[in-house]
Amino acid sequence: MNKEDWGNIMELFGTMKVEENELIIGGNRATDLVKEYGSPLYVFDEELIRNYCRDYRKYFKCEENNNKVAFAGKAFLNVQMCKLLKEENMNLDVVSGGELYTAYKADFPLEKVMFHGNNKTLDEIELGVKLGVGKFVVDNFYEMEALNNIAKEYNKVQNIYLRITPGIDAHTHEYIRTGQIDSKFGFAPVEDTIEKSIEMAINLENINLVGIHCHIGSQTFGLEAYEEAVEVMFSLVKKIKKIWII
């Protein structure tokens, strides 16, 4: 098989190339990696990952506007990945106590961690508060109350985002849609649920509401759904500032 045939079968990214009919990744022959580590084998291109991190920070103008870009730990997370993210000045999303503990063991700055998840256990919430997670993304009333109680025990005021269900039907598979009104995630715009969640967050002594968050789904490649979500979220921000003056 020649180089042109390889190009018809798979797209090459980052340091990937074909030499002498063999796939090379990061200067290593795939066959040599299999001989050393066995198969199946997942190989990550460090140079490619770093370039993606830098591109996201560049195009979101992080340096100029103090914007943040976070890596989703659920995609892949181990100690070495956390160290790479730290070196690239990235933030980190985690969705479990295990991911949070991995970040902690890697000496990742926990103030740059956002703790997501719609079914956090009390132990996970306590671990996050104890270790000093930067922000919890609160998904429901029960979690908010539990977080407030645990933060009170540790004499802390915990920063949070509220996860909002924006009512956006992203054009992706129904199993990975998360933004529609009947989603199991977040506070939905029905029966004043969002307004009640904001009131609750403001009135709890050990909670500090610093922002809102939404997620509309995975594998969404068109821009229309994102544009709709931005409009919904910005309208809500204006309403929050007008009514609650925060």
From TrEMBL:
This is Diaminopimelate decarboxylase. One of its GO terms (molecular function) is diaminopimelate decarboxylase activity. It comes from the Bacteria. Residues 49-242 form the Orn/DAP/Arg decarboxylase 2 N-terminal domain. GO terms for biological process: lysine biosynthetic process via diaminopimelate. It comes from Clostridium neonatale. Keywords: Decarboxylase, Lyase, Pyridoxal phosphate. Its cofactor is pyridoxal 5'-phosphate. InterPro entries: Ala_racemase/Decarboxylase_C (IPR009006), DAP_deCOOHase_LysA (IPR002986), De-COase2_N (IPR022644), PLP-binding_barrel (IPR029066).
